[in-house]
Amino acid sequence: PTRCWPGRGQRRKAVLLALGAPKQERLAARGRQLTPAVGYASVGAGLDFLAGNQTRAPRWVRRLALEWAWRAASAPGRLVPRYARCFAILPAEIAAALRQRR
Q1: Does 71 lie in the same domain as 42?
Q2: Could you state, in chain order, the average pLDDT of each consecutive group of 10 residues for the chain (102 residues)?
Q3: How wide is the angle at C-alpha 32 spanned by C-alphas 72 and 91, nearest 5°?
Q4: I want to staple 72 with a disulfide (CB 3.0 to 4.6 A). Which of 15, 53, 79, 98 is the partner?
Q5: DSSP per residue over 8-53, as a string?
């Protein structure tokens, strides 16, 4: 079996997770509960970019901060529903942030 959490005497400081959303976020949350001294980073498709399996958006798209839209257009069946769920919670998050500022 694969060990996910550091054992006694092991001192991992960081764990990179590339499982895809929302699995990697859930695992990171659980890891922070079990091992609060360890940092967890959800790198998602970062490994695909490093390996050359995916290409980044053109520079002009990145400058406009629209790389998310470029990626959604490249894999709509997988990414559009995910991004739609994120956008659905955005109004409530903005309202909560504005309330905290008062």
Answers
A1: no
A2: 60 83 89 90 86 92 95 92 88 93 86
A3: 40
A4: 79
A5: TT----EEEE-S-TTHHHHHHHHHHHH-TTSEEEE-TTHHHHHHTS
Structure tokens belonging to residue 91: 């109004």
Domain co-membership, 35 together with 71: no
| Assigned domain for 102 exists | yes
Same domain, 63 and 102: yes
pTM exceeds 0.85, yes or no: no
Give the domain extent around 48: 8-55
Burial (Cβ within 10 Å: 0-12, 13-18, ≥19) of residue 2? exposed
- What are the helix and strand counts (H, E) for the chain? 5, 2
